[in-house]
UniProtKB/TrEMBL annotation:
Keywords: ATP-binding, Cell membrane, Membrane, Nucleotide-binding, Transmembrane, Transmembrane helix, Transport. This is Sugar ABC transporter ATP-binding protein. Pfam families: BPD_transp_1. The keyword Membrane applies. The chain crosses the membrane at residues 9-30, 77-96, 108-128, 140-160, 181-200, 243-265. Residues 71-260 form the ABC transmembrane type-1 domain.
Length: 275
């Protein structure tokens, strides 16, 4: 009994150590955003600035390349993409998990195998397709592909498989169709999975740099990751401004997680109980 307690304490201390280790870069980022340029490369590192300098944070929002515009662009792309991804992934997952048709499992495996294709391989075909469709250099070049996520379909399918089939069978007996069962019965039960998918998908789109770099040209269309490039000057890098902008950039991620964390915990708890 005593050895078990010692093991738990040791594991807890080890996890605490790694947790603190992961937080250190974020603490350095926040600290640097309040420093003067001369303090950035000071060694040993001064974690608490001598004087808190708000100049860089103010410049991020009021400078010639205000982050307000980039924020609005990122929010527009992320929210529309997440809404579409959650709805379409849920519909596809319902079909793969609750509707019996020939070749269903084989089709799902083929669909799932597409996760092995590196996204960089698709840049040229997507560029040609977007240029043909007239959406290149528009936000739709990021929104439309973002609505289709293989991981989302896989995740929602696994959750729907855990829902007892007796629920949908009883609804069929009462005369309900697939769409009514999906929206009135299955989807309300999937709130924890939907919240988890929304948080993960939001983080993907909010931090998406490669697609924005390839498919957006006009600076008015830039997102937050591209906006950070404004702090890379011709002969130097404005580290203080970049860290201030990066600090502002993580705020939506923190808010989204805080709002949805209860659903994530609920989903993990319900899965554990079922197991």
């Amino acid at each position: 009994m005593q050895s078990t307690s010692v093991t738990k304490i040791a594991v807890t201390c080890l996890m605490l150590f790694f947790g603190v280790l992961m937080i250190v870069p974020f603490l350095w980022m926040i600290s640097t955003s309040f420093k003067t340029p001369a303090e950035v490369f000071q060694f040993p590192i001064s974690w608490i600035p001598a004087d808190f300098n708000w100049e860089h944070h103010i410049k991020v929002w009021t400078g010639p390349n205000s982050f307000t515009h980039y924020y609005l662009n990122s929010l527009k792309i992320s929210l529309i993409s997440v809404t579409g991804a959650v709805l379409l992934s849920s519909l596809a997952a319902y079909g793969f998990s609750r509707i019996e048709f020939k070749g269903r499992n084989a089709m799902f495996m083929v669909y799932l195998s597409m996760m092995m294709v590196p996204p960089q391989v698709l840049f040229v075909p997507k560029f040609i397709m977007f240029d043909w469709a007239g959406i290149y250099n528009t936000h739709w070049a990021l929104i439309l592909p973002g609505m289709f996520t293989i991981f989302g379909v896989f995740m929602m399918r696994q959750f729907f498989l855990s829902v007892p089939h007796e629920i949908s069978e009883a609804a069929f007996i009462d005369g309900a169709g697939h769409f009514r069962i999906f929206f009135r019965l299955i989807l309300p039960l999937a709130k924890p999975a939907l919240a988890t998918l929304a948080i993960i998908d939001f983080s993907w789109h909010w931090n998406d740099y490669e697609n924005a770099l390839v498919f957006l040209i006009d600076q008015d269309l830039y997102t937050v990751p591209l906006g950070l490039q404004n702090f890379i000057l011709e002969n130097t890098v404005d580290y203080n401004g970049m860290m201030a902008a990066a600090t502002a950039g993580i705020i939506p991620m923190i808010l989204v997680f805080l709002i949805g964390q209860n659903y994530i915990i609920q989903g993990v708890s319900s899965s554990a109980v079922k197991g």
